[in-house]
Specification:
Helix content is 41%, strand content 18%. Strands 1, 2, 3, 4, 5, 6, 7 and 8 form an eight-stranded mixed β-sheet that branches.
């Protein structure tokens, strides 16, 4: 009876052996399992007793045996074979970050006396172990040479680890506890110094797609601009051409492990993918690492969350974030989770996952009601503006093309116009008065970007409805951009998706002060556009003349019975790109 009580009241689960166990006898597995009972002093790599037992078992089963030890000298895991994969429980209990080690060391036996392999060193860097080592087994089953390696703090040389000189096990005088303490202190100081120098969060950017190298580099440049706009410092960029975008980890597992190693070694706080990660890919990558991994959509959503100032803008951003989050909520599933009737259908009630999903659904419904109210108020404002009979010109274009700067110069306003992506989120309307005593309404709204996340398009549809009331869309383009055609096409695609292709558009090439005059003329003729520089008011005269001519025609053509919209006979100057 006392034995039964002890078995029932035991708090910790019975340890088990992982790895390549096929073909082993039960007695052999039981002997390996008894290694969990061993204890190692803090200052020792292994005790002679544990080392000898591991070597004898290795010789018996003809397979390597690895022990994962904590800093307290407890055997945390036993792994048979060459594969090194920590159990989810161990990975969750002993986490590693860019400024710390995992707090575990691994020693594996090997039948041949040979140095540490590259695969072993990769495991050391990827798992951020305190130490990793191999112990050779002599023909009589006794310990042979001990090979050790440890990580190095970032020192600018690019070296990941240091391989110590091999020594016979019984001659090893390595002070394990003191060495690990000093090593982690050096790592922490190096990371802290780097954090103080850098200030902001840092990231490694990754692009994985079937596209060519040149296109991937262009997209990484834009992703770097987005990261800078979010206050993230870019440490490195990685481009990997893949057959398709449906891999479990988007990248191959080996390449992803390499990226994660570089992230840890270079002190980056996160990895940012240029492609949108599917919910399954997000979960698979999260299982591999504790490092923060986000995608382009999350980065854009974060920028929007930082820049939204009005109540309407904040509601739209939160709605977009929740719509993105909902399919990525993970848990144990819904089987047997709701109370029901009948045998086999009585569950424990609502799970945490279901509760989270229900709250997200409720919040989305609440925010959608708020947006409906905002849309109603906007409709009333547009109706009042329509009764005044003032023409409306809306500025559209790629993000950071200079729309807000142009609005400020045209209307003598003071709207925020920083040189960064998505500086403007809230719609702004100002009056532009011409010398001939006529005026128009100029509106500025959120900029577009290629592959604009559908969550943002849906959430900001209320704001973008303002564009439907425009008499003219002034499509502002950064003339100095490396991919002008791509940016123009991205904006045209969004306008088409919003049903705005019937509204006349005038193409304006901004930032022409950065280009030579002959190139400005060439681009203007190619795109049938007007070249300007918003920071040089003297270059705006041709644009103002075209706007005034357009407004004059609207004034002549309109009568009180006609709608506030140009008719099919639109003049040629309101051309489309």
């Amino acid at each position: 009876m006392p034995f039964i009580n002890r078995a029932i009241t035991r708090s910790a689960p019975i340890p088990d052996v992982h790895g390549q166990l096929t073909g082993l006898r039960a007695s052999q597995v039981a002997a390996i399992d008894r290694l969990y009972r061993r204890r190692v002093p803090h200052d020792k790599i292994l005790t002679p007793e544990l080392a000898k037992t591991m070597c004898q078992l290795t010789l018996d089963i003809r397979r390597p045996i690895a022990v994962v030890l904590t800093r307290r000298g407890l055997v945390q895991e036993i792994i048979v074979g060459t594969d090194l994969v920590l159990s989810p429980a161990t990975a969750a209990q002993f986490r590693a970050g860019p400024r710390s080690l995992r707090g575990l060391r691994l020693i594996r036996t090997q039948l041949r006396d040979q140095p540490l392999s590259q695969e072993t060193l990769t495991d050391l860097a990827y798992l951020r172990l305190d130490l990793i080592g191999t112990l050779s087994v002599l023909p009589d089953g006794s310990p042979g040479n001990l090979y050790l390696a440890h990580l190095l703090p970032p020192d600018g040389t690019g070296r990941l680890c240091n391989i110590l000189k091999a020594v016979p096990f019984y001659q090893c005088s390595f002070q394990c506890d003191r060495f690990i303490e000093e090593l982690e202190a050096e790592v922490h100081v190096a990371r802290a110094r780097q954090a103080v120098q850098d200030g902001n969060e840092s990231a490694i950017l990754v692009s994985a797609s079937p596209h060519g190298r040149a296109e991937q580099e262009e997209r990484l440049i834009e992703l770097a601009e987005l990261a800078n706009s979010a206050g993230v410092r870019v440490i490195d960029r990685v481009a990997q051409r893949t057959a398709d975008g449906h891999q479990r980890h988007l990248l191959g597992s080996g390449k992803l492990k390499e990226v994660l190693i570089q992230t840890l070694h270079k002190g980056a706080d996160m990895v940012i993918f240029d492609q949108t990660l599917s919910p399954a890919q997000s979960r698979a990558i999260a299982e591999m690492t504790d490092i923060k991994v986000i995608d382009r959509t999350q980065l854009i959503l974060d920028i929007f969350a930082r820049r939204a100032h009005s109540r309407e803008g904040k509601v739209q951003v939160e709605l977009a974030q929740l719509r993105y989050l909902l399919p990525r909520l993970s848990g144990k599933g819904t089987q047997l989770s709701r109370l029901g009737g009948g045998i086999g259908s009585r569950g424990p009630g609502e799970t945490k996952l279901e509760s989270d999903r229900r709250r997200v659904h409720d919040r989305i419904t609440h925010l959608e009601r708020d947006l409906a109210q905002f849309a109603k108020h906007q409709g009333q404002r547009r109706a009042r503006r329509g009764r005044q009979g003032l023409p409306v010109v809306s500025l559209v274009g790629y993000t950071n093309a200079g729309k807000s700067t142009l609005l400020n110069v045209l209307t003598k306003s003071h709207v925020s116009a920083e040189n960064r992506m998505f500086e403007t989120l809230d719609t702004t309307s100002r009056r532009l008065r011409f010398p001939e005593d006529s005026e128009i309404i100029v509106t500025d709204t959120v900029g577009f970007i290629r592959d604009l996340p559908k969550e943002l398009v849906g959430a900001f549809r209320t704001t973008l409805e303002e564009l439907h009331e425009a008499d003219l869309l002034l499509h502002v383009v950064d003339a100095g951009a490396a991919d002008v055609d791509v940016q123009i096409s991205a904006v045209v695609d969004v306008l088409r998706d919003l049903g705005l292709e019937s509204i006349p558009r005038m193409l304006v090439l901004n930032k022409c002060d950065r280009l030579p005059p002959d190139q400005i003329g060439l681009l203007s003729r190619r795109y049938r556009a007007i070249g300007i520089s918003a920071i040089r008011p003297e270059t705006l005269r041709p644009l103002l003349a075209e706007l005034y001519a357009h407004v004059s025609r609207l004034t002549v053509d309109r009568t009180p019975t006609l709608p506030n919209r140009p008719q099919s006979g639109e003049p040629a100057l309101a051309s489309r790109p």
